[in-house]
Amino acid sequence: MDFSEIFFSELKDKVSESINIIEELKKSKDKKYIKDLYRIFHTLKGSASLVNLENFRDFSHKVEQYFKESLESEKLPDESFLDNLIAIISNFSNKNTDLTETEVKDFLEILEGKKDASENIVISEKEIFKISEISEYISKVLEIENSILRNDLKSALSEIRNLKKYLLNTLDEIVFVKLENILKDLKKLVSREANRYGKKVELLLEIENVKIEKEDSKDIIDILVHLVRNSIAHGIENPDERKKLGKNEVGKIWIRSYVDQGNIFIEVEDDGKGLDIEKIENKVKEKNLNVTPLEAIFLPGFSSKDKADELSGRGIGLDMVKNFANLRGGDVKVETQKGKGTKFTVFFKTKSFITKVLVVEDSERIFAIETSHILKIENYNEKEMQIENKIASEGKLYEIYYKSKKPKFVIITKNEKAIVVNNIIGTFDGQLIVQEIREIKGFIKNIFSSPIPLLDTNTLKKNVTSKNEEKKKILLIDDSIVTRNVVSKFLENRGYNVVTAKNGYDGIEKFKNQEFDIVISDVEIPRINGFEITRKIKEINHNVPVIIFSTLSQKNFDKAIESGADSFISKDEPPENLLRLIEKFSK
Protein backbone atom coordinates (compact mmCIF):
# COMPACT_ATOMS: atom_id res chain seq x y z
CA MET A 1 0.00 0.00 0.00
CA ASP A 2 1.43 3.41 -0.95
CA PHE A 3 0.95 6.60 1.05
CA SER A 4 -1.90 7.96 -1.10
CA GLU A 5 -3.83 4.74 -0.46
CA ILE A 6 -3.33 5.29 3.26
CA PHE A 7 -4.69 8.83 2.84
CA PHE A 8 -7.85 7.67 1.05
CA SER A 9 -8.37 4.99 3.69
CA GLU A 10 -8.08 7.66 6.40
CA LEU A 11 -10.32 9.98 4.34
CA LYS A 12 -13.16 7.44 4.42
CA ASP A 13 -12.91 7.18 8.21
CA LYS A 14 -12.76 10.97 8.65
CA VAL A 15 -15.74 11.51 6.32
CA SER A 16 -17.83 9.03 8.30
CA GLU A 17 -16.71 10.62 11.59
CA SER A 18 -17.44 14.14 10.27
CA ILE A 19 -20.96 13.28 9.14
CA ASN A 20 -21.78 11.76 12.53
CA ILE A 21 -20.41 14.82 14.34
CA ILE A 22 -22.31 17.23 12.07
CA GLU A 23 -25.56 15.37 12.78
CA GLU A 24 -24.86 15.56 16.53
CA LEU A 25 -24.05 19.26 16.21
CA LYS A 26 -27.31 19.96 14.39
CA LYS A 27 -29.30 18.11 17.06
CA SER A 28 -27.62 19.28 20.25
CA LYS A 29 -26.28 22.71 19.18
CA ASP A 30 -23.31 21.89 21.42
CA LYS A 31 -20.32 24.02 20.38
CA LYS A 32 -17.83 21.37 21.51
CA TYR A 33 -18.46 19.56 18.19
CA ILE A 34 -17.12 22.54 16.24
CA LYS A 35 -13.64 21.92 17.64
CA ASP A 36 -13.86 18.25 16.63
CA LEU A 37 -14.73 19.22 13.05
CA TYR A 38 -11.95 21.79 12.98
CA ARG A 39 -9.47 19.14 14.13
CA ILE A 40 -10.63 16.60 11.51
CA PHE A 41 -10.22 18.96 8.56
CA HIS A 42 -6.94 20.27 10.00
CA THR A 43 -5.67 16.66 10.03
CA LEU A 44 -6.92 16.02 6.47
CA LYS A 45 -5.21 19.18 5.27
CA GLY A 46 -1.87 18.11 6.74
CA SER A 47 -2.20 14.55 5.46
CA ALA A 48 -3.09 15.71 1.94
CA SER A 49 -0.05 17.99 1.92
CA LEU A 50 2.28 15.14 2.81
CA VAL A 51 1.07 12.95 -0.08
CA ASN A 52 1.00 15.86 -2.59
CA LEU A 53 -2.79 15.91 -3.02
CA GLU A 54 -2.84 19.69 -3.33
CA ASN A 55 -6.53 20.15 -4.18
CA PHE A 56 -7.69 18.02 -1.24
CA ARG A 57 -5.34 20.13 0.90
CA ASP A 58 -6.82 23.41 -0.36
CA PHE A 59 -10.42 22.26 0.10
CA SER A 60 -9.73 20.95 3.62
CA HIS A 61 -7.99 24.23 4.48
CA LYS A 62 -11.07 26.27 3.48
CA VAL A 63 -13.37 24.08 5.58
CA GLU A 64 -10.91 24.16 8.49
CA GLN A 65 -10.86 27.98 8.32
CA TYR A 66 -14.67 28.10 8.44
CA PHE A 67 -14.78 26.05 11.65
CA LYS A 68 -11.89 28.03 13.10
CA GLU A 69 -13.83 31.26 12.57
CA SER A 70 -16.87 29.65 14.21
CA LEU A 71 -14.75 28.72 17.23
CA GLU A 72 -13.29 32.21 17.54
CA SER A 73 -16.66 33.96 17.16
CA GLU A 74 -18.40 31.33 19.35
CA LYS A 75 -21.20 31.12 16.77
CA LEU A 76 -22.78 27.92 15.54
CA PRO A 77 -22.11 27.12 11.87
CA ASP A 78 -24.89 27.90 9.45
CA GLU A 79 -27.11 24.83 9.04
CA SER A 80 -27.22 25.14 5.25
CA PHE A 81 -23.40 25.14 5.27
CA LEU A 82 -23.40 21.91 7.27
CA ASP A 83 -25.94 20.28 4.92
CA ASN A 84 -23.93 21.30 1.87
CA LEU A 85 -20.74 20.02 3.49
CA ILE A 86 -22.35 16.61 4.09
CA ALA A 87 -23.53 16.52 0.45
CA ILE A 88 -20.00 17.22 -0.77
CA ILE A 89 -17.93 14.96 1.48
CA SER A 90 -20.35 12.04 1.09
CA ASN A 91 -18.86 11.60 -2.37
CA PHE A 92 -15.29 11.49 -1.06
CA SER A 93 -15.54 7.86 0.04
CA ASN A 94 -15.36 6.77 -3.61
CA LYS A 95 -12.35 8.93 -4.48
CA ASN A 96 -8.93 7.44 -5.19
CA THR A 97 -7.37 10.46 -6.92
CA ASP A 98 -6.95 14.11 -6.04
CA LEU A 99 -9.80 16.58 -6.54
CA THR A 100 -9.62 18.63 -9.72
CA GLU A 101 -9.30 22.41 -9.52
CA THR A 102 -12.80 22.67 -11.02
CA GLU A 103 -14.22 20.40 -8.30
CA VAL A 104 -12.61 22.50 -5.57
CA LYS A 105 -14.01 25.69 -7.13
CA ASP A 106 -17.51 24.22 -7.43
CA PHE A 107 -17.47 22.73 -3.92
CA LEU A 108 -16.46 26.06 -2.40
CA GLU A 109 -19.20 27.86 -4.32
CA ILE A 110 -21.68 25.31 -2.97
CA LEU A 111 -20.45 25.88 0.61
CA GLU A 112 -20.73 29.66 0.13
CA GLY A 113 -24.28 29.29 -1.14
CA LYS A 114 -23.42 30.58 -4.62
CA LYS A 115 -24.33 27.29 -6.22
CA ASP A 116 -26.91 24.63 -5.46
CA ALA A 117 -25.56 21.32 -4.23
CA SER A 118 -27.73 19.47 -6.72
CA GLU A 119 -26.06 21.16 -9.71
CA ASN A 120 -23.76 19.03 -11.81
CA ILE A 121 -20.09 19.93 -11.69
CA VAL A 122 -18.78 21.08 -15.05
CA ILE A 123 -15.29 20.00 -16.07
CA SER A 124 -13.40 22.73 -17.91
CA GLU A 125 -11.85 22.03 -21.29
CA LYS A 126 -8.35 22.26 -19.84
CA GLU A 127 -9.06 19.27 -17.60
CA ILE A 128 -10.17 16.82 -20.31
CA PHE A 129 -8.42 15.11 -23.17
CA LYS A 130 -9.74 14.81 -26.66
CA ILE A 131 -11.84 11.68 -27.19
CA SER A 132 -9.27 10.30 -29.63
CA GLU A 133 -6.49 10.70 -27.04
CA ILE A 134 -8.52 9.00 -24.31
CA SER A 135 -9.36 6.16 -26.68
CA GLU A 136 -5.67 5.68 -27.49
CA TYR A 137 -4.71 5.61 -23.81
CA ILE A 138 -7.47 3.12 -23.00
CA SER A 139 -6.31 0.90 -25.84
CA LYS A 140 -2.75 0.86 -24.51
CA VAL A 141 -3.90 0.22 -20.92
CA LEU A 142 -6.03 -2.73 -22.10
CA GLU A 143 -2.99 -4.21 -23.85
CA ILE A 144 -1.03 -3.99 -20.61
CA GLU A 145 -3.87 -5.44 -18.53
CA ASN A 146 -4.34 -8.41 -20.86
CA SER A 147 -0.59 -9.10 -20.98
CA ILE A 148 -0.56 -9.25 -17.17
CA LEU A 149 -3.62 -11.55 -17.14
CA ARG A 150 -1.78 -13.86 -19.57
CA ASN A 151 1.20 -13.67 -17.20
CA ASP A 152 3.22 -12.22 -20.08
CA LEU A 153 5.13 -9.77 -17.92
CA LYS A 154 7.79 -9.15 -20.54
CA SER A 155 5.17 -7.86 -23.00
CA ALA A 156 3.46 -5.88 -20.22
CA LEU A 157 6.73 -4.13 -19.34
CA SER A 158 7.35 -3.32 -23.00
CA GLU A 159 3.81 -1.94 -23.38
CA ILE A 160 4.15 0.15 -20.21
CA ARG A 161 7.35 1.68 -21.55
CA ASN A 162 5.63 2.46 -24.86
CA LEU A 163 2.76 4.07 -22.97
CA LYS A 164 5.22 6.11 -20.91
CA LYS A 165 6.91 7.27 -24.11
CA TYR A 166 3.54 8.12 -25.65
CA LEU A 167 2.49 10.14 -22.58
CA LEU A 168 5.82 11.98 -22.43
CA ASN A 169 5.53 12.88 -26.13
CA THR A 170 2.00 14.19 -25.52
CA LEU A 171 3.18 16.29 -22.57
CA ASP A 172 6.16 17.47 -24.60
CA GLU A 173 3.84 18.80 -27.33
CA ILE A 174 1.63 20.53 -24.76
CA VAL A 175 4.37 22.11 -22.62
CA PHE A 176 7.38 22.81 -24.86
CA VAL A 177 8.31 24.64 -28.03
CA LYS A 178 11.59 24.53 -29.98
CA LEU A 179 13.71 27.61 -29.35
CA GLU A 180 14.57 27.89 -33.04
CA ASN A 181 10.86 28.20 -33.85
CA ILE A 182 10.45 31.34 -31.76
CA LEU A 183 13.59 33.01 -33.17
CA LYS A 184 12.54 32.97 -36.82
CA ASP A 185 11.90 36.73 -36.98
CA LEU A 186 14.99 37.76 -35.02
CA LYS A 187 17.15 38.19 -38.14
CA LYS A 188 14.63 40.71 -39.48
CA LEU A 189 14.89 42.67 -36.23
CA VAL A 190 18.71 42.64 -36.45
CA SER A 191 18.59 43.95 -40.02
CA ARG A 192 16.14 46.71 -39.07
CA GLU A 193 18.09 47.78 -35.96
CA ALA A 194 21.43 47.74 -37.85
CA ASN A 195 19.99 50.05 -40.54
CA ARG A 196 18.65 52.33 -37.83
CA TYR A 197 22.14 52.83 -36.37
CA GLY A 198 23.97 52.82 -39.72
CA LYS A 199 25.78 49.58 -38.92
CA LYS A 200 26.33 46.25 -40.63
CA VAL A 201 25.48 43.26 -38.46
CA GLU A 202 25.18 39.53 -39.09
CA LEU A 203 23.22 37.29 -36.71
CA LEU A 204 24.50 33.73 -36.34
CA LEU A 205 22.34 31.10 -34.64
CA GLU A 206 24.05 28.06 -33.12
CA ILE A 207 21.12 26.36 -31.46
CA GLU A 208 20.97 22.68 -30.63
CA ASN A 209 17.61 20.93 -30.44
CA VAL A 210 16.72 22.99 -27.36
CA LYS A 211 13.13 23.13 -26.17
CA ILE A 212 11.75 25.70 -23.74
CA GLU A 213 8.45 25.91 -21.91
CA LYS A 214 5.77 27.65 -23.94
CA GLU A 215 4.86 29.84 -20.98
CA ASP A 216 8.48 31.11 -20.89
CA SER A 217 8.70 31.83 -24.62
CA LYS A 218 7.56 35.47 -24.44
CA ASP A 219 10.02 36.25 -21.63
CA ILE A 220 12.88 34.60 -23.51
CA ILE A 221 12.06 36.50 -26.71
CA ASP A 222 12.02 39.76 -24.71
CA ILE A 223 15.41 38.89 -23.15
CA LEU A 224 17.04 38.04 -26.48
CA VAL A 225 15.60 41.11 -28.21
CA HIS A 226 16.90 43.28 -25.36
CA LEU A 227 20.41 41.79 -25.46
CA VAL A 228 20.63 41.86 -29.27
CA ARG A 229 19.46 45.49 -29.43
CA ASN A 230 22.06 46.45 -26.83
CA SER A 231 24.77 44.72 -28.83
CA ILE A 232 23.78 46.60 -31.97
CA ALA A 233 23.30 49.99 -30.31
CA HIS A 234 26.22 49.96 -27.87
CA GLY A 235 28.52 47.06 -28.67
CA ILE A 236 29.05 46.77 -32.42
CA GLU A 237 31.07 49.63 -33.88
CA ASN A 238 30.07 51.41 -37.11
CA PRO A 239 31.74 50.11 -40.35
CA ASP A 240 34.36 52.88 -40.61
CA GLU A 241 35.45 52.45 -37.00
CA ARG A 242 35.68 48.68 -37.40
CA LYS A 243 37.90 49.09 -40.50
CA LYS A 244 40.27 51.38 -38.57
CA LEU A 245 40.50 48.74 -35.84
CA GLY A 246 41.36 46.05 -38.38
CA LYS A 247 37.99 44.35 -37.98
CA ASN A 248 35.58 43.19 -40.66
CA GLU A 249 33.10 46.01 -41.29
CA VAL A 250 30.28 43.54 -40.65
CA GLY A 251 29.85 42.98 -36.94
CA LYS A 252 28.72 39.60 -35.67
CA ILE A 253 26.26 38.57 -32.98
CA TRP A 254 26.03 34.93 -31.98
CA ILE A 255 23.11 33.32 -30.18
CA ARG A 256 23.99 29.88 -28.89
CA SER A 257 21.86 27.51 -26.89
CA TYR A 258 22.49 24.08 -25.38
CA VAL A 259 21.48 21.87 -22.46
CA ASP A 260 24.01 20.72 -19.87
CA GLN A 261 23.29 18.76 -16.68
CA GLY A 262 19.66 19.81 -16.41
CA ASN A 263 20.21 23.49 -17.30
CA ILE A 264 19.35 25.38 -20.47
CA PHE A 265 22.12 27.79 -21.49
CA ILE A 266 21.50 30.73 -23.85
CA GLU A 267 24.50 32.83 -24.89
CA VAL A 268 24.41 36.19 -26.66
CA GLU A 269 27.87 37.27 -27.81
CA ASP A 270 29.10 40.12 -30.00
CA ASP A 271 32.51 41.03 -31.43
CA GLY A 272 32.14 44.72 -30.60
CA LYS A 273 34.08 47.06 -28.36
CA GLY A 274 33.23 45.44 -25.01
CA LEU A 275 32.00 47.11 -21.84
CA ASP A 276 33.74 50.25 -20.64
CA ILE A 277 34.61 48.93 -17.17
CA GLU A 278 36.27 52.19 -16.13
CA LYS A 279 33.16 54.20 -16.90
CA ILE A 280 30.98 51.72 -15.01
CA GLU A 281 33.35 51.85 -12.01
CA ASN A 282 33.00 55.63 -11.91
CA LYS A 283 29.23 55.31 -11.92
CA VAL A 284 29.40 52.74 -9.08
CA LYS A 285 31.50 55.16 -6.99
CA GLU A 286 29.22 58.06 -7.82
CA LYS A 287 26.20 56.11 -6.58
CA ASN A 288 28.19 54.77 -3.58
CA LEU A 289 27.34 51.16 -4.39
CA ASN A 290 29.10 48.26 -2.72
CA VAL A 291 29.21 46.02 -5.82
CA THR A 292 31.59 45.18 -8.65
CA PRO A 293 31.05 46.77 -12.09
CA LEU A 294 29.78 43.51 -13.55
CA GLU A 295 27.32 43.15 -10.66
CA ALA A 296 26.20 46.77 -10.94
CA ILE A 297 24.88 46.46 -14.50
CA PHE A 298 22.21 44.04 -13.24
CA LEU A 299 20.83 46.47 -10.63
CA PRO A 300 17.38 47.93 -11.43
CA GLY A 301 17.68 51.35 -13.09
CA PHE A 302 21.42 51.42 -12.58
CA SER A 303 22.09 53.77 -15.52
CA SER A 304 18.73 55.47 -16.01
CA LYS A 305 20.24 58.97 -15.80
CA ASP A 306 22.90 58.40 -18.47
CA LYS A 307 20.80 57.66 -21.50
CA ALA A 308 23.45 58.49 -24.02
CA ASP A 309 26.42 56.53 -22.75
CA GLU A 310 27.59 52.93 -22.53
CA LEU A 311 25.79 52.38 -19.25
CA SER A 312 22.43 53.15 -20.74
CA GLY A 313 22.41 50.31 -23.19
CA ARG A 314 24.01 47.77 -20.91
CA GLY A 315 22.16 48.57 -17.70
CA ILE A 316 18.47 49.20 -18.24
CA GLY A 317 16.56 45.94 -18.42
CA LEU A 318 19.33 43.59 -17.33
CA ASP A 319 17.65 43.28 -13.92
CA MET A 320 14.72 41.72 -15.79
CA VAL A 321 17.08 39.18 -17.38
CA LYS A 322 18.60 38.27 -14.02
CA ASN A 323 15.22 37.99 -12.29
CA PHE A 324 13.95 35.64 -14.99
CA ALA A 325 16.94 33.31 -14.54
CA ASN A 326 16.95 33.48 -10.72
CA LEU A 327 13.26 32.62 -10.45
CA ARG A 328 13.94 29.47 -12.48
CA GLY A 329 16.89 28.33 -10.40
CA GLY A 330 19.58 29.87 -12.62
CA ASP A 331 21.52 33.08 -13.14
CA VAL A 332 23.12 35.32 -15.77
CA LYS A 333 26.87 35.84 -16.25
CA VAL A 334 28.76 38.38 -18.33
CA GLU A 335 32.24 38.21 -19.86
CA THR A 336 33.75 41.22 -21.61
CA GLN A 337 37.08 42.24 -23.14
CA LYS A 338 37.88 45.72 -24.33
CA GLY A 339 37.95 45.87 -28.13
CA LYS A 340 37.01 42.18 -28.41
CA GLY A 341 33.36 41.99 -27.43
CA THR A 342 30.90 40.94 -24.75
CA LYS A 343 29.10 37.69 -23.96
CA PHE A 344 26.01 37.29 -21.77
CA THR A 345 25.16 33.75 -20.64
CA VAL A 346 21.69 33.15 -19.26
CA PHE A 347 21.06 29.73 -17.73
CA PHE A 348 18.14 28.18 -15.88
CA LYS A 349 16.84 24.74 -14.97
CA THR A 350 15.02 22.85 -17.67
CA LYS A 351 11.69 21.26 -16.86
CA SER A 352 11.79 17.49 -17.07
CA PHE A 353 9.03 15.02 -16.35
CA ILE A 354 11.49 12.14 -16.08
CA THR A 355 14.97 11.99 -14.53
CA LYS A 356 17.05 8.88 -15.32
CA VAL A 357 19.15 7.87 -12.32
CA LEU A 358 21.50 5.17 -11.13
CA VAL A 359 20.37 4.00 -7.68
CA VAL A 360 23.19 2.87 -5.42
CA GLU A 361 23.42 1.48 -1.91
CA ASP A 362 25.69 2.43 0.95
CA SER A 363 25.97 0.58 4.27
CA GLU A 364 22.79 2.14 5.63
CA ARG A 365 21.55 4.42 2.85
CA ILE A 366 20.17 4.39 -0.65
CA PHE A 367 20.79 7.35 -2.93
CA ALA A 368 20.77 8.20 -6.64
CA ILE A 369 23.09 9.78 -9.21
CA GLU A 370 21.87 11.21 -12.51
CA THR A 371 23.03 8.94 -15.35
CA SER A 372 23.83 12.02 -17.46
CA HIS A 373 26.52 12.92 -14.90
CA ILE A 374 28.24 9.51 -15.00
CA LEU A 375 31.35 8.92 -17.10
CA LYS A 376 31.90 5.23 -16.28
CA ILE A 377 31.35 2.50 -13.67
CA GLU A 378 34.00 -0.04 -12.63
CA ASN A 379 34.46 -2.83 -10.09
CA TYR A 380 36.49 -1.63 -7.11
CA ASN A 381 39.86 -3.22 -6.44
CA GLU A 382 41.72 -1.44 -3.65
CA LYS A 383 45.17 -2.92 -4.42
CA GLU A 384 45.04 -2.09 -8.11
CA MET A 385 42.97 1.10 -8.13
CA GLN A 386 43.42 3.16 -4.96
CA ILE A 387 46.46 5.38 -4.59
CA GLU A 388 46.16 7.32 -1.31
CA ASN A 389 42.83 9.12 -1.66
CA LYS A 390 42.57 8.71 -5.42
CA ILE A 391 41.25 6.14 -7.87
CA ALA A 392 43.45 5.12 -10.79
CA SER A 393 41.55 4.32 -13.99
CA GLU A 394 42.92 4.05 -17.54
CA GLY A 395 46.06 6.01 -16.67
CA LYS A 396 44.20 8.84 -14.93
CA LEU A 397 43.73 9.68 -11.22
CA TYR A 398 40.35 10.73 -9.78
CA GLU A 399 39.83 12.22 -6.31
CA ILE A 400 37.60 10.11 -4.04
CA TYR A 401 34.72 12.28 -2.90
CA TYR A 402 32.62 9.53 -1.33
CA LYS A 403 33.57 6.07 -0.10
CA SER A 404 31.37 3.56 1.70
CA LYS A 405 32.57 1.13 4.36
CA LYS A 406 32.35 -1.97 2.14
CA PRO A 407 33.32 -0.67 -1.32
CA LYS A 408 32.52 -2.79 -4.38
CA PHE A 409 31.90 -0.34 -7.23
CA VAL A 410 33.53 2.89 -8.41
CA ILE A 411 31.43 5.52 -10.20
CA ILE A 412 33.44 8.16 -12.08
CA THR A 413 31.46 11.33 -12.80
CA LYS A 414 31.93 13.61 -15.78
CA ASN A 415 33.39 16.30 -13.53
CA GLU A 416 36.11 13.76 -12.57
CA LYS A 417 34.98 12.74 -9.09
CA ALA A 418 35.11 9.18 -7.77
CA ILE A 419 32.19 7.80 -5.76
CA VAL A 420 32.76 4.38 -4.20
CA VAL A 421 29.67 2.41 -3.09
CA ASN A 422 28.61 -0.99 -1.72
CA ASN A 423 26.05 -1.97 -4.29
CA ILE A 424 24.33 -0.85 -7.47
CA ILE A 425 20.57 -1.47 -7.39
CA GLY A 426 19.89 -0.42 -10.97
CA THR A 427 18.95 2.31 -13.43
CA PHE A 428 15.48 3.82 -13.09
CA ASP A 429 13.26 6.62 -14.36
CA GLY A 430 11.90 8.87 -11.62
CA GLN A 431 10.66 12.38 -10.98
CA LEU A 432 12.85 15.01 -9.34
CA ILE A 433 11.77 17.06 -6.35
CA VAL A 434 14.26 19.94 -6.30
CA GLN A 435 15.34 20.58 -2.71
CA GLU A 436 18.99 21.40 -2.15
CA ILE A 437 20.33 20.18 1.19
CA ARG A 438 24.10 20.18 1.67
CA GLU A 439 25.35 17.83 -1.08
CA ILE A 440 21.87 16.69 -2.12
CA LYS A 441 20.36 18.20 -5.26
CA GLY A 442 16.87 16.97 -4.44
CA PHE A 443 14.86 13.79 -4.10
CA ILE A 444 13.74 11.25 -6.70
CA LYS A 445 10.23 9.88 -6.28
CA ASN A 446 8.26 7.06 -7.95
CA ILE A 447 11.04 4.48 -7.64
CA PHE A 448 10.45 3.24 -4.09
CA SER A 449 7.64 3.93 -1.61
CA SER A 450 9.34 7.12 -0.47
CA PRO A 451 11.68 9.58 -2.28
CA ILE A 452 15.42 8.90 -2.28
CA PRO A 453 18.19 11.55 -2.16
CA LEU A 454 19.77 12.63 -5.45
CA LEU A 455 23.47 13.35 -5.01
CA ASP A 456 24.61 16.70 -6.41
CA THR A 457 27.91 15.75 -8.03
CA ASN A 458 28.73 19.41 -8.66
CA THR A 459 28.78 20.38 -4.96
CA LEU A 460 30.34 17.27 -3.42
CA LYS A 461 33.06 18.21 -0.99
CA LYS A 462 36.40 16.43 -1.17
CA ASN A 463 36.98 13.26 0.87
CA VAL A 464 33.42 12.67 1.99
CA THR A 465 33.22 9.17 3.49
CA SER A 466 30.50 7.03 4.97
CA LYS A 467 30.30 7.55 8.72
CA ASN A 468 29.61 4.84 11.23
CA GLU A 469 27.47 7.01 13.45
CA GLU A 470 24.78 5.89 15.85
CA LYS A 471 21.36 6.66 14.45
CA LYS A 472 19.63 9.72 15.87
CA LYS A 473 16.36 8.83 17.58
CA ILE A 474 13.24 10.86 16.86
CA LEU A 475 9.84 10.83 18.58
CA LEU A 476 7.01 11.70 16.17
CA ILE A 477 3.65 12.58 17.79
CA ASP A 478 0.66 12.91 15.45
CA ASP A 479 -2.90 11.58 15.40
CA SER A 480 -2.86 11.18 11.61
CA ILE A 481 -1.89 7.71 10.40
CA VAL A 482 -0.82 9.27 7.08
CA THR A 483 1.59 11.66 8.78
CA ARG A 484 3.03 8.93 10.99
CA ASN A 485 3.57 6.60 8.03
CA VAL A 486 4.91 9.16 5.54
CA VAL A 487 7.23 11.06 7.87
CA SER A 488 8.59 8.03 9.75
CA LYS A 489 9.33 6.13 6.53
CA PHE A 490 10.90 9.22 4.98
CA LEU A 491 13.19 9.82 7.99
CA GLU A 492 14.08 6.15 8.43
CA ASN A 493 15.28 6.10 4.81
CA ARG A 494 17.58 9.01 5.73
CA GLY A 495 19.24 7.06 8.55
CA TYR A 496 17.06 8.13 11.53
CA ASN A 497 15.41 5.88 14.10
CA VAL A 498 11.77 6.99 14.44
CA VAL A 499 9.32 6.10 17.21
CA THR A 500 5.70 7.20 16.67
CA ALA A 501 2.91 8.12 19.07
CA LYS A 502 -0.73 8.62 18.07
CA ASN A 503 -1.63 11.07 20.86
CA GLY A 504 -0.01 13.34 23.42
CA TYR A 505 -0.28 11.05 26.44
CA ASP A 506 1.25 8.17 24.49
CA GLY A 507 4.07 10.46 23.31
CA ILE A 508 4.86 11.83 26.77
CA GLU A 509 4.90 8.32 28.25
CA LYS A 510 7.35 7.12 25.58
CA PHE A 511 9.52 10.19 26.16
CA LYS A 512 9.71 9.39 29.87
CA ASN A 513 10.84 5.81 29.26
CA GLN A 514 13.21 6.24 26.30
CA GLU A 515 15.97 8.63 25.24
CA PHE A 516 15.30 10.79 22.17
CA ASP A 517 17.41 13.29 20.26
CA ILE A 518 14.50 15.24 18.76
CA VAL A 519 10.72 15.42 19.21
CA ILE A 520 8.33 16.33 16.37
CA SER A 521 4.72 17.08 17.33
CA ASP A 522 1.52 18.16 15.63
CA VAL A 523 -0.64 20.82 17.31
CA GLU A 524 -4.22 19.65 16.85
CA ILE A 525 -4.18 16.33 18.70
CA PRO A 526 -7.10 14.92 20.75
CA ARG A 527 -7.09 15.37 24.53
CA ILE A 528 -3.80 17.27 24.80
CA ASN A 529 -2.49 19.67 22.15
CA GLY A 530 1.04 20.09 20.83
CA PHE A 531 1.79 23.18 22.92
CA GLU A 532 1.02 21.36 26.17
CA ILE A 533 3.02 18.35 24.94
CA THR A 534 5.98 20.67 24.35
CA ARG A 535 5.74 22.15 27.86
CA LYS A 536 5.67 18.71 29.48
CA ILE A 537 8.59 17.43 27.39
CA LYS A 538 10.66 20.50 28.26
CA GLU A 539 9.89 19.90 31.96
CA ILE A 540 11.26 16.36 31.65
CA ASN A 541 14.35 17.31 29.60
CA HIS A 542 14.71 20.89 28.36
CA ASN A 543 17.78 19.99 26.23
CA VAL A 544 15.84 17.91 23.70
CA PRO A 545 14.77 20.05 20.69
CA VAL A 546 11.04 20.10 19.94
CA ILE A 547 9.78 20.88 16.44
CA ILE A 548 6.13 21.84 16.01
CA PHE A 549 4.99 20.22 12.75
CA SER A 550 1.63 21.66 11.75
CA THR A 551 -0.19 24.06 9.46
CA LEU A 552 0.53 27.02 11.70
CA SER A 553 -0.97 30.47 11.65
CA GLN A 554 1.01 33.41 13.06
CA LYS A 555 -1.06 33.11 16.23
CA ASN A 556 -0.11 29.46 16.64
CA PHE A 557 3.50 30.25 15.84
CA ASP A 558 3.55 32.65 18.79
CA LYS A 559 2.01 29.96 21.00
CA ALA A 560 4.63 27.46 19.85
CA ILE A 561 7.43 29.80 20.91
CA GLU A 562 5.73 30.51 24.24
CA SER A 563 5.40 26.78 24.92
CA GLY A 564 9.16 26.33 24.55
CA ALA A 565 9.30 24.80 21.07
CA ASP A 566 12.68 25.20 19.37
CA SER A 567 11.30 25.57 15.87
CA PHE A 568 8.25 25.01 13.71
CA ILE A 569 7.50 23.93 10.16
CA SER A 570 4.28 23.75 8.19
CA LYS A 571 2.90 20.49 6.85
CA ASP A 572 2.30 22.38 3.63
CA GLU A 573 6.06 22.32 3.05
CA PRO A 574 7.75 19.25 1.52
CA PRO A 575 9.23 16.68 3.96
CA GLU A 576 12.70 17.59 2.69
CA ASN A 577 12.41 20.94 4.54
CA LEU A 578 11.69 19.03 7.74
CA LEU A 579 14.84 16.98 7.09
CA ARG A 580 16.88 20.16 6.75
CA LEU A 581 15.56 21.38 10.11
CA ILE A 582 16.32 18.04 11.79
CA GLU A 583 19.87 18.14 10.41
CA LYS A 584 20.29 21.58 11.97
CA PHE A 585 19.41 20.22 15.43
CA SER A 586 21.42 17.01 14.89
CA LYS A 587 24.78 18.77 14.58
Automatic annotation (TrEMBL):
> Mind giving the lineage of the organism this protein is from?
Bacteria, Thermotogati, Thermotogota, Thermotogae, Thermotogales
Question: In its UniProt entry, what is this protein called?
Answer: histidine kinase
Q: Does the keyword Flavoprotein apply?
A: no
Swiss-Prot/TrEMBL keywords: Kinase, Phosphoprotein, Transferase
Q: Which residues form the HPt domain?
A: 1-103
Q: Name one GO biological process term.
A: phosphorelay signal transduction system
The protein's organism comes out as Thermosipho japonicus
Q: Where is the Histidine kinase domain?
A: 167-352
| Sites of Phosphohistidine modification | 42
Q: Identify the enzyme class.
A: transferase
Q: Which InterPro entries match?
A: Bact_Chemotaxis_CheA (IPR051315), CheY-like_superfamily (IPR011006), HATPase_C_sf (IPR036890), HATPase_dom (IPR003594), His_kinase_dom (IPR005467), HPT_dom_sf (IPR036641), Sig_transdc_His_kin-like_C (IPR004358), Sig_transdc_His_kin_Hpt_dom (IPR008207)
Q: Which reaction does it catalyse?
A: ATP + protein L-histidine = ADP + protein N-phospho-L-histidine
Instruction: Say if the entry is tagged with keyword Acetylation.
Output: no
Residues modified to 4-aspartylphosphate? 522
Q: What is its EC number?
A: 2.7.13.3
MF terms in GO: protein histidine kinase activity
Q: Which residues form the Response regulatory domain?
A: 473-586
| TM region(s), chain numbering | none
